[in-house]
Automatic annotation (TrEMBL):
GO terms for cellular component: cytoplasm. This is GTP-binding protein. CDD domains: CobW-like (cd03112). Zinc chaperone that directly transfers zinc cofactor to target proteins, thereby activating them. Zinc is transferred from the CXCC motif in the GTPase domain to the zinc binding site in target proteins in a process requiring GTP hydrolysis. One of its GO terms (molecular function) is nucleotide binding. Keywords: Chaperone, Hydrolase, Nucleotide-binding. It holds the Pfam family cobW. It comes from Sphingomonas ginsenosidimutans. Belongs to the SIMIBI class G3E GTPase family. ZNG1 subfamily. Residues 250-344 form the CobW C-terminal domain. It catalyses: GTP + H2O = GDP + phosphate + H(+). The keyword Nucleotide-binding applies.
Length: 365
């Protein structure tokens, strides 16, 4: 695995702002671009159709801001568009021969699955050299969120993969409704802090600079990223939430391992898991203690695509356990744990494939 290790470097942080139609993305963005720390943000907006309404709304709020709009269907054509836009941006928007922006925010369409955008950022070698993924931010409408989650699987996925959840329009609902949506968000994505946002007002420091491989990251960031505290009250080795049948079997699981993992076994396990169940691994992130490595390795995956593992310079805290968060669809967390544990026992490839196949077969698609 060491051949894949890359440094974080001084790359430009890119954040993804997602959330269902009308949930308040543009309102949040309008507030953000007026914040002092955002003066050098490049905003990229993806919209369906020819009417660039969001583009006008945001662009008018700040004369200096560069807003680049890309159209087309997110799932197919956008990946090329986004990739080209991001690749050309440092030169296209240069001032005095210098790259002018120090941050990128990509707003997705309300109907989009954010996974293709994350894949683009994670896998395009040109983009890898220029950018690093900061946080995925999702807006959730407190007034309509419950009904939307019941009927729109993309909305569930947007909230499930986010690093930060912005609960908007709480001014329109009473306490009971707000509590219900918070319970649902906690089950869907317990690792993501929920921030109440009225009319877009949110402190940018809560949203930015929270990516794991921020070179300036302090030890606390890793714990925040994994929201470890939220998961481990005592000596429990795993934690999972009951499947909410409305949420398509999406659940979050945190697995911890006390002893270092065999690098080969771990890599093969991830390989098999992505091969057989990639579509249902909505997001995986973790800090991994590999045998023979002094420092931890960070893994980050979205569906079948895994970011090249990043080796941190050192352990960020005394806690040297492997800790991984899995946001999965229709995968039993116990099976995840079981297959990795077995893999470390040194089973043959054939046995391992059989195992993973069995996991796959046990779970109705
Ligand atoms: N009452 C209330 N209205 C809000 C709040 N936040 C946003 N809105 C309103 O909700 C509507 C939709 O907000 P937008 O920011 O356009 O939502 P969006 O997610 O960008 O929408 P799309 O671009 O269609 O996906 C607008 O009329 C906003 O003014 C809030 O906290 N409270």
């Amino acid at each position: 695995m060491s051949g894949l290790l890359t440094g974080a470097g001084g790359r430009i942080p890119a954040s993804v702002l997602t959330g269902f139609l009308g949930s308040g993305k543009t309102t949040v963005l309008n507030h953000l671009v007026r914040s002092p720390g955002m003066a050098r943000a490049l905003v990229i907006i993806n919209e369906f159709g020819a009417v660039g309404l969001d583009h006008d709304l945001v662009a008018r709020s700040n004369d200096d801001l560069v807003v680049e709009m890309i159209g087309g269907c997110l799932c197919c054509t956008i990946r090329g568009d986004l990739s080209r836009t991001l690749r050309e941006a440092p030169w296209r928007f240069a001032r005095d021969g210098q790259c002018w922006f120090d941050r990128v925010v990509i707003e997705t369409t309300g109907l989009a699955d954010p996974a293709p955008i994350l894949h683009t950022l994670m896998t395009d070698p040109h983009l890898e050299a220029l950018y690093r993924l900061d946080a995925v931010i999702a807006t959730v409408d407190a007034a309509t969120g419950m009904a939307t989650f019941d009927t729109q699987s993309e909305a569930v996925k947007q909230a499930a993969v986010a690093d930060r959840l912005l609960l908007t329009k709480t001014d329109l609902v009473d306490e009971t409704v707000q509590r219900a949506i918070r319970v649902r968000l906690a089950a869907l994505n317990p690792a993501a802090p929920v921030i109440t946002v009225t009319d877009g007002a949110v402190d940018p420091s809560l949203l930015f600079g929270v990516g794991l491989w921020d070179p300036a990251s302090k030890s606390d960031d890793v714990r925040r990223w994994l929201a470890e505290e939220a998961h481990h009250g005592g000596n429990h080795h795993h934690h999972h939430h009951d499947v909410n049948r409305h949420d398509d079997g999406i659940r979050a699981t945190c697995l911890t391992f006390d002893t270092p993992l065999d690098p080969m076994a771990f890599e093969r396990w991830l390989g098999l898991l992505t091969m057989f169940r990639g579509a249902d691994l909505l997001r995986v992130k973790g800090i991994v203690n590999l045998a023979g490595h002094d420092a931890p390795v960070i893994v980050h995956g979205v569906q079948h695509v895994f970011h090249p593992p990043v080796e941190l310079e050192r352990w960020p805290s005394e806690d040297r356990r492997t800790r991984m968060v899995f946001i999965t669809r229709r995968i039993d967390p116990e099976e995840l744990r079981g297959t990795l544990a077995l893999m470390t026992l040194g089973l043959s490839d054939v046995q391992l494939e059989g195992l993973v196949e069995r996991v796959a077969a046990d779970l109705p698609a």
